[in-house]
Design brief:
10 helices; Arc Repressor Mutant, subunit A; mainly alpha; two-stranded antiparallel sheet; about 270 residues; about 55% helix
Length: about 270
């Protein structure tokens, strides 16, 4: 009497699925983009430095096509510039650009924050409280004497500011605000590598959160703008700027007004 056993399928030789995904052209280009973007934002690749294709290919251990795709994508975000005769460079930084960047953040994030408060939901409030709690458990620098970036603090700090405006109801506005936030992050890394100034407004985030939960739109928008301006001043002072761009916290920048067209004067009979 023969024993009947179920036939077991023979294992077939195949490549590792993870390896297939990692080496696919689409995923490889995305990986190179994320790595290059991270190195630019963290100032590992300094502003105005040349981005030679050969150098980047060796740095990220990949071919030239993914590198070029990543550079073109970063150029569309304003983190990379393409110049004739020089190829690609990391976008430079300047006090003028930081001034414009900060004012624009004040306008857009103020608008988004106002909309979030107007549509105050329990989900938005819970997300904001949780984001602040997580951020408060981290230190900004991993060293007390010198600035040593704390990746976890940076991630949670970005999430806190995103949570503030998450209820604005516009994915476009939210996307613009996050893109400007990334640009500000790059300025912080460039400045604090040279001179790290410990912040004195330790409870600034707490004050912003409390005012937001209370629904005091005017107060929280002013606090947020003051917070963004303080960061800009700290960066400028770290780089030895001669003049403070935002000299007064009492007068935050207002959104640009749309000019009202003047009515044409009626011509009197017989005139002209």
């Amino acid at each position: 009497m023969t024993n009947k056993t179920s036939a077991r399928p023979r294992p077939t030789a195949r490549s590792n699925p993870d390896q297939e995904v990692a080496t696919s052209p689409k995923t490889l280009a995305g990986t190179v983009y994320e790595s290059l973007r991270s190195d630019i934002l963290s100032a590992q690749l300094e502003p105005d430095s040349k981005l030679r294709i050969e150098f980047l290919s060796k740095r990220y251990r990949t071919g030239q096509i993914p590198i070029r795709e990543a550079l073109n994508r970063l150029a569309s975000e304003g983190l990379v510039e393409r110049r004739e005769q020089r190829g690609f460079i990391v976008s430079p930084v300047s006090a003028e650009d930081l001034t414009e960047l900060t004012k624009t953040r004040c306008w857009l994030e103020g608008m988004a924050l106002g909309e979030s408060i107007a549509s105050h939901t329990l989900e938005w409030e819970e997300g904001l409280v949780l984001a602040y709690h997580r951020l408060s458990q981290q230190t900004r620098s991993m060293s007390r004497s010198v600035y040593l970036v704390n990746p976890e603090w940076e991630k949670l700090h970005r999430e806190f500011h995103r949570s503030l405006i998450a209820g604005c109801g516009s994915r476009w506005l939210l996307s613009f605000c996050l893109q400007l936030s990334d640009q500000s992050f790059r300025y912080r890394q460039v400045a604090f590598k040279k001179s790290f100034k410990r912040r004195t407004d330790k409870d600034g985030h707490r004050a912003i959160m409390d005012a937001a939960i209370q629904g005091n739109a005017d107060k929280v928008i002013k606090l947020l703008q003051k917070h963004l301006q303080y960061t800009a001043r700290t960066i400028l002072e770290s780089n030895g700027a001669l003049k403070t761009v935002f000299p007064s916290d009492k007068n935050p920048p207002s959104p640009p007004r749309t000019p009202v067209p003047r009515k044409a004067k009626k011509r009197q009979p017989g005139s002209g």
